[in-house]
Amino acid sequence: MKLILLGPPGAGKGTQAKIIEDRHGSVQLSTGDMLRAAVAAGTQVGKQAEAVMARGELVPDEVVVGIIADRIDQPDCAKGFILDGFPRNVAQAEALDRMLADKGLKLDAVLELGVDDEILVGRIEKRASETEGGPRADDNVEALRKRLEVYHAQTAPLIGYYRDRGVLKTVDGMAGIDAVSGAIEAAIG
Ligand code: AMP
Description:
Layout: E1 2-6, H1 13-24, E2 27-30, H2 31-41, H3 44-55, H4 61-72, E3 81-84, H5 90-103, E4 109-114, H6 117-130, H7 141-155, H8 157-164, E5 168-172, H9 177-188
Parallel strand pairs: 1-3, 1-4, 2-3, 4-5
Helix pairs in contact: 1-9, 2-3, 4-5, 6-7
Bound molecules: adenosine monophosphate.
């Protein structure tokens, strides 16, 4: 199964990606997780990304497109993958289209998790208070506001992009974790 999980920060993309991974064997590919690992490891990419991420802005397209292009070629992705946090804008979506076409691959679905902004602020505050080893550098009110602004301006247009291509499925992301995963199963099953 080759899926994209689309939704604002705090919508539950990571949680649902892990559930789908367990059920279907598709691999979760989170650009946010990969970038955080690069920052922690102090790589060139990490050094480039750290300050941008802390501000809640987007890392340059060529960086994340390069990360995904390398990762998708790994053998474990042959079973399928769940893109979590990528693409984040139309340029990345077009790059992904080209990448998949070159490999003769096709997306099964793009799952949009719909959540109201007010609920997201509460969820992120909860995540910040519960994260082992301290909150993420971008889990604070100022960075979250920026991430939401970036989501609405740059990522939300992808809803129309994928709807036009007939692959969009929308799920209510405000329900509980089990209800959301049940709705996802119904949508992709
Ligand atoms: P996430 O864990 O998906 O919320 O991503 C955390 C941060 O990593 C984002 O706010 C961006 O700074 C960066 N990031 C993650 N994925 C992307 C992407 N596809 N394009 C650009 N920046 C990204």
